[in-house]
Hints:
The complex is a heterodimer.
Chain A: H1 4-22, E1 51-52, E2 58-62, E3 67-71, E4 74-75, E5 85-86, H2 89-100, E6 105-106, H3 112-122, H4 129-138, H5 153-174, H6 191-201, H7 206-219, H8 222-229, H9 235-242, H10 244-253, H11 257-282
Antiparallel strand pairs in A: 1-6, 2-3, 3-4, 3-5
Helix pairs in contact in A: 3-7, 3-11, 4-7, 7-8, 7-11, 8-9
Chain B: H1 7-23, H2 33-44, H3 54-84, H4 91-97
Amino acid sequence: MPSGAMWRSCLCLRHGWRRLLNRPPGGPTASVGKRASIPIPFRAYAPPAERKRFYQNVTITQGEGGFEINLDHRKLKTPQAKLFTVPSEALAIAVATEWDSQQDTIKFYTMHLTTLCNTSLDNPTQRNKDQLIRAAVKFLDTDTICYRVEEPETLVELQKNEWDPILEWAEKRYGVEIGSSTSIMGPSIPTRTREVLVSHLASYNMWALQGIEFVVTQLKSVMLTLGLMDLHLTVEQAVLLSRLEEEYQIQKWGHVEWAHDYELRELRARTAAGVLFIHLCSESTTVKHKLLQE
Amino acid sequence: MAALGPPARTLRGLLRELRYMNAGTGRPYRDTAAYRYLVQAFRAHRVTSEKLCRAQHELHFQAATYLCLLRSVREHVALHQEFHGKGERSVEEAADLVGLKLPHQPGGKGWEP
């Protein structure tokens, strides 16, 4: 049964891997116009050193491809030196706010929306739509809320009470069968279920799919991600359900602030960024002015 | 549908997060693009006589998600500063942990610059 520690190390590895692919030699200094005067030591497998905030103002302009971010007079670029453009104004404002909220040093590890935009623009893993969908649906075989324990009794009860309603909702919403399992092989997902979900995900565009795959990887669950996409769960709820066993153990044995709280906040931040990214990239903003009925 | 609570509470939370974010800089938070956008969005989608408007619910959900993002990032950074941001100890501090002191040679060791 996958343990919390194993998922944690997978998380760290993936985060390190993403950094490696996103940042070319020379660190993030290469991505923004002028090179910094402070030389940053380049070690291939170390995370980039923190940069000082080198800009005063962050503004948004509208270009041909979409909305662009300007740091003072310099246009923001992705790690692969493409121009940073986003299709949605709200997303641009949120990214600008991320850059504006950095004080003294720029903490790249807190700028989740920027990272997601960079990944969508650069596509460093060079996956197409089909590959992204397959990567996301693959998690269904070991979906957190389908993979149950057999003991202790109280945890079994808790999993049943908290996770079964989500499965019921998903089964009803999509007209599929999912079910849960206590076997080490995981749940057996019928082919039809897989097909229905694949075709549902195919209705989202590339950017939204990057976000979807990201959230699925963070929560280790396709079901919870669907719940978030359909506004059935809040981020806090989904994160709690994803970490159900961990929360159970914390309640039983006590919590360690510098580990549990730290990881909880980080997971919440990443998931919230991913969910917001999905919604902002897949909405069509049509403002219908209703007649005022005073 | 997700249990979100009243929109006013979400908006208040968002404004509070913006305030915390801009406390470090000299600028008032009301000048930021985020503030203007949020206030305008909430005003445009104010609760009308239709209680089951999906667009409203979507906006509220996105706002609540953004609030979760801002709050979690702030708390994450605070926890990082408190527990993980101290860096390495200097050689003197490390020796001090076990009660040892570094040797002191008045003339230097000879090979130092």
